[in-house]
Amino acid sequence: MFPLRSVLNRAVLALTGVACLLVGLWATAPRTPLAGRLPSWWPVPGPHTVFVDRHRLADLRLESWWTPTVMVGAIAATVLFALWSVRQSHGGFRPLLPLAAPGSTLRTRALEDAVTQRAVTVDGVARCRTRVLGGRRKLRIRMRVWLRPDVTPAAVLPALAALGAQTEQAVTPYDVRTHVRFSSVPHRRTHVR
């Protein structure tokens, strides 16, 4: 399964490609057999001319809406692409956590994996996903825990609290806040055919 960012990247690239394809088809439509079916107001350039020639562009520039529309479109596109680029470069970095022992560090991904593996061993937990968010001296651990059918959160919460305390002790200089979100695995239903 792809992470959400990868899926979004592919979706944006696909939508951009489809948009470029549609604009290209639209720009070449008067030269196709569809030219006879176009509305009467549709501009039909000659066979050896461009879609928007210099005279038509000069006429567009004289319109009062042209300059603000082009400026707003250009600024919006620039801001959106800049935010997207910043978001792409920000998400790939996984910080190293310096620990109390001299010269020792811990990758947040390794901490996530260790907490997840320990949480899955708790009786009643079907699966778990963990995310560690680091700050200057604070760590936030977000756990999404799926419980087995007929298991209540109260049954597993003491073991998960103990796991949070062990994690805080392991990363001693950091103040750890653990947030647990519970979901349940649905009962398997028998299907009658």
What does the model show?
- Helix content is 47%, strand content 19%.
- It is built from 5 helices and 5 strands.
- The strands form 2 sheets. The chain has a 3-stranded mixed sheet with strand order 3-4-5, with helices on one face. Strands 1-2 form a two-stranded antiparallel ribbon.
- The model has no long low-confidence stretch (mean pLDDT 81).
- The protein has 2 domains: 4-91, no CATH class; 96-184, ANL, C-terminal domain (GMP Synthetase, Chain A, domain 3, 2-Layer Sandwich), CATH 3.30.300.30.
- With 193 residues, the protein is an alpha+beta fold.
- Keywords: Membrane, Transmembrane, Transmembrane helix.
- This is Alkaline shock response membrane anchor protein AmaP.
- It comes from Streptomyces griseoviridis.
Number of helices: 5
Q: What is the percent of helical residues? A: 40-55%
The chain-level mean pLDDT equals 81
Strand order of the largest sheet: 3-4-5
Key terms:
about 20% strand; GMP Synthetase, Chain A, domain 3; single chain; two-stranded antiparallel ribbon; three-stranded mixed beta sheet; 2 domains; 5 helices; about 45% helix; alpha+beta; elongated; about 190 residues
Please summarize what this structure is:
This protein has 193 residues and is α+β, with helices and mostly antiparallel strands. The protein is 47% helix and 19% strand.
